[in-house]
Every structure is written in structure tokens, then in C-alpha cells.
Amino acid sequence: MNRKKIFNIIIAVLLILSLAFNVYNLFDGGLSNLNLNKEVSDGYSPSYEYGKSEDYSSNNSTAQRSDTEMLIMNASITITVDNNKTIDEQVRTKVREYGGKLVSSYDYQFDKTQKVYTLQVKVPQEKYEEFIDYLKSIGKTDNFSENSYDVYDQYQDNALRITMLNNKLDRLYELLKQAKDVNDLIILENYISDTIYQIESFKSIQSRLEYETDYASVSITIKPIVKEVVEPSGLQNLFPNAFTNSLNAFLKFIEWFVRILFFVLPYVILSGIGYFIYRKTTRRNK
What we know:
5 strands; elongated; single chain; alpha+beta; five-stranded mixed sheet
């Protein structure tokens, strides 16, 4: 066997191995990607759907203001009910009965007939546990979480700062009474204005902390029960569905056949060229 025949055999083996490798990738990778895309396209991702979450409250007891504790309470609950529009109205009424406040509300369309209602409310902290128990009793609780943090130290620090600033303001007023130079008067008035501004800022913070610890914030999502739609039995859709499935299968076969054809075509052309060169070389040797 001469060198040319050995070379031709090596080229043919390489072409066959390359063709087999590409065909394997075509079926393995192509089908995997097809299945992956199908899983993604068939997946359902609702606009507002909360996963199950654990209670991450730092203190599960009712938040009450005491001599050493000032808690800011926050909670979030998602409930599924049969008639969510009626429940939305009932929750609003219950908030008013407890002396609470509606901070914000909105709704969005869940399907063609039902909506999801979301409320952000504040209820007195002494009514917090009773209100949460009420919400859990009116439907199925899909998600509930709560947390609290203590602002007692911050409140006491601010109170001390206000006292110190008031003392400073009294001294500035005394100096203002004694001042005679115009420049001194201007400087003292500026100091007085800055001190008053700081006092009012701290008082505003104190008022906000008092309000936040008087009321617990609760975010409520009211969802409808999704009823399963049962398709009518019978043969009315059997033949159209069968024809559609058959046509889709045929088109998919044509698609894969064309893909395989384009994969194989370059190797057929190269094999033909190699065979032509081999035949020509063989004839010359004869």
C-alpha cells in the first residue's frame, strides 16, 4: 500500500469521525436546547406571587411601649379568599373599627373576572395581634412575615440632645440681652437660629418615632381562589387536534431532516473530491 492510499484512508477516517461528532452534537445538544426552551416557555410566572417565607420576627409578642422599650412593628400577609372584593371591604371596615389608618391601596387584574387587592394599613399596636388573628381567620394564609426593632435608645438620645440644645438656647438669649456690638448681635442671632432649627429637627424625629411605635404597619395582599377549569368531554376537538399534532410532527421532521442534510452536505462534497482525486491518482499509477 503506497503513501497516497494511506493518506486517503486517514482523511476518510477523519471525515467520518468529524461527521459522527457533529451528528451527535446535533441530536444531543439540539434536543437538549429544544427541551430547555420548552420548559421555559411552558413555565408560569405570576405578576404578584410570594413564596413561602418563615417568620423572621425578632420579637413575636405584642409590641407595647414601656419604660425601656419602644418597638416599630412591620408585618406582611398574603391570604387567599373566595370573594376577595367583599373581603377587601371588610378589612377596610375592620381597620376603621380598630382605630387604624389606610396608608395606600391598589388592585390589579388577576384573570378575566377576579382582581388582587393590596392594602397598606396602620393599626394601634395594642390591637396588632388581634388584627393579625382576624386576617388569618378570613382565608388561607399563603405567606406571613413580621419583624420589629427597638428605637428606645434613639428616642432617649434625641430627648437628651433636645434638653442640651434648649439649655444652649437659654444661654444664647442671655448673651443676646447683654450684647451691645452690632457684629455680636448678628453672630448671636445666627447661633440662635441654628439652635432652634436643630431643636425642631429633633422634635420632628421624636414625633415620627412616637407615631411609628404607636401604630404597627401591615401589608395585606388578598388573592382570589383559582378554580380549575374542566374541559368539556367529547369528540368535537379530537380530529382537529389530531390533524394539528400530525402536521406539527411532520414539520418538525422536515426541520430536522434539513438540518441533517446541511450537516452532511459538506462531508459528501469533500468525500466526492477525495474519491475523485483517489481515482485519478490510481489511473495514473496504472
